């Protein structure tokens, strides 16, 4: 087939789905962009250059076959485009919404310089949303019957859900254990609705439940069962807890009321969105308050944009490096600025003032970038001069997350960890030092992207399948006692 329908990037401009106005979207928690119409999705997909070395695919952690499904979309063959998209991704419509495409596929599109990249994420979202609406998303059906073996998965986030789906397809009995009352992990409780509406996550989970996967919510390993007890119940166990321990900040006055952790703040907001009653929500609500968020990652962006929607009087984000060196998505920064967030670049909290025990202001030290640190990034260092005082009646710490002490929590002191507290695994098999116990996602690689968790979930499922097949064969060869 000729390329006549493709290569339109020289005559068709880049066009993302239109965003709702900043004032309108700041009044609700709905997703900020309207969906593509079919003609627009086809038009934007036709901009793909179908290059010989598809860097978009190379730089996607899942190595999605992006040029293929872009071409099929341009040709109006959406169901086929969906089939190719879902063949390598367990949650394409979620990745299309929350992946930092500007740092991954779109940021490496060969036409990005000069013409603007293909809007890969928006087309990916369109394809799979259309598939759900059209009934093309097939039920989860096991391809074999291996119900004699079961797998226990600790953590119902993206890595755990992905591994569960892949192993259920192989025919194993799957049980997922999660501390929250709803499955989804940070997809459900960490990411705000304006980036990922919860029915999008809910329909994925409902498909897994309908496919025979058992969910055990409100279940804490170490409280409701030890790791050893789960190993007794199952033929293999996967630890996919993610990393939830917030990094702390050492500064005078940090203990004041109104200085809170980002995850506590986001979970409370998402629970309100579900209609839950949140105890002491007033302490976690930005309405009518001067809000300062500390951090420059995507979690910080989620916090500042949530505070705007809750009706904060002012919202500022402090980041100790400059804009070019921040770890979060530049698109998220642009969305936040449109919605009224002020960014204080090269700024770090020096101390906090309190009025009758409640935080009232932040004393901010101005920073400059010095020599590169161990990671190669220029390290921030204080500029001479007195701190700048910013009003703050709610301070949200969004400094990142570290692993919880799982060997202690799980009653498994023998479980091997690295010096960073992440679980130590064999790089090839993804098995821990305990036989039959595997680990995947952020608990192995540290705080990272959802797309990497999905990749890890798919990879670990393959390793676990090999382990379980070998285990079943060994059991079959074992002589029966007389």
Automatic annotation (TrEMBL):
Keyword Transmembrane helix: no
Signal peptide start and end residues: none
Residue ranges the record marks as coiled coil: none
InterPro entries xref list: DPD_II, FAD/NAD-bd_sf, FAD/NAD-binding_dom, GltD-like, Helical_ferredxn
Keywords (A to Z) from UniProt: 4Fe-4S, Iron, Iron-sulfur, Metal-binding, Oxidoreductase
GO molecular function, one term: 4 iron, 4 sulfur cluster binding
Keyword rRNA processing: no
Organism superkingdom: Bacteria
Residue ranges occupied by any Dihydroprymidine dehydrogenase domain in the UniProt entry: 26-135
Domain FAD/NAD(P)-binding: 151-457
Protein name (Swiss-Prot/TrEMBL): NAD(P)-dependent oxidoreductase
Organism: Glacieibacterium arshaanense
Taxonomic lineage of the native organism: Bacteria, Pseudomonadati, Pseudomonadota, Alphaproteobacteria, Sphingomonadales
């Amino acid at each position: 087939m000729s390329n006549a329908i493709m290569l339109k990037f020289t005559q068709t401009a880049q066009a993302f789905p239109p965003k709702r106005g900043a004032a309108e979207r700041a009044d609700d928690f709905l997703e900020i962009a309207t969906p593509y119409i079919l003609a627009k999705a086809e038009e934007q997909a036709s901009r793909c250059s179908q290059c010989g070395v598809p860097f978009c695919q190379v730089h996607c952690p899942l190595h999605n076959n992006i040029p293929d499904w872009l071409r099929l979309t341009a040709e109006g063959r959406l169901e086929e485009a969906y089939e190719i998209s879902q063949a390598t991704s367990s949650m394409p419509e979620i990745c299309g919404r929350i992946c930092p495409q500007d740092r991954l596929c779109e940021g490496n599109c060969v036409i990005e310089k000069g013409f603007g990249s293909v809007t890969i994420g928006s087309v990916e979202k369109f394809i799979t949303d259309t598939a759900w609406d059209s009934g093309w998303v097939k039920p989860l059906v096991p391809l074999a019957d291996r119900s004699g073996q079961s797998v226990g998965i600790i953590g119902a986030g993206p890595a755990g859900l992905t591994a569960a789906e892949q192993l259920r397809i192989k025919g194993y009995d799957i049980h997922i254990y999660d501390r929250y009352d709803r499955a989804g992990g940070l997809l459900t409780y960490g990411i705000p609705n304006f980036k990922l509406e919860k029915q999008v996550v809910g329909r994925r989970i409902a498909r897994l439940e309908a496919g025979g996967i058992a969910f055990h919510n409100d279940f804490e390993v170490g409280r409701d069962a030890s790791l050893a007890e789960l190993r007794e119940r199952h033929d293999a166990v996967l630890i996919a807890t993610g990393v939830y321990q917030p990094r702390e900040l050492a500064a005078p006055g940090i203990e004041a009321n109104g200085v809170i952790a980002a995850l506590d703040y986001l979970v409370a907001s998402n629970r309100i969105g579900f209609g839950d009653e949140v105890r002491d929500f007033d302490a976690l609500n930005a309405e009518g308050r001067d809000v300062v968020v500390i951090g420059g990652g995507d979690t910080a962006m989620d916090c500042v944009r949530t505070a705007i929607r809750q009706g904060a009087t002012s919202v500022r984000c402090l980041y100790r490096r400059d804009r070019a060196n921040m770890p979060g998505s530049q698109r998220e920064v642009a969305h936040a600025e449109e919605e009224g967030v002020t960014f204080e670049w090269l700024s770090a909290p020096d101390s906090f003032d309190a009025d009758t025990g409640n935080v009232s202001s932040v004393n901010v030290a101005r920073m400059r970038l010095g020599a590169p640190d161990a990671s190669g990034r220029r390290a921030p260092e204080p500029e001479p001069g007195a701190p700048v005082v910013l009003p703050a009646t709610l301070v949200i710490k969004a400094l990142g997350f570290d692993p919880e002490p799982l060997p202690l929590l799980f009653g498994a002191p023998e479980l091997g960890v690295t010096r960073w507290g992440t679980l130590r695994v064999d790089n090839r098999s993804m098995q821990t030092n305990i036989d039959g116990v595997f680990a995947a996602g952020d608990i192995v690689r540290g705080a990272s992207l959802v797309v990497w968790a999905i990749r890890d979930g798919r990879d670990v499922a393959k390793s676990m399948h090999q382990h379980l097949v070998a285990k079943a064969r060994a059991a079959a060869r074992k002589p029966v006692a007389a």
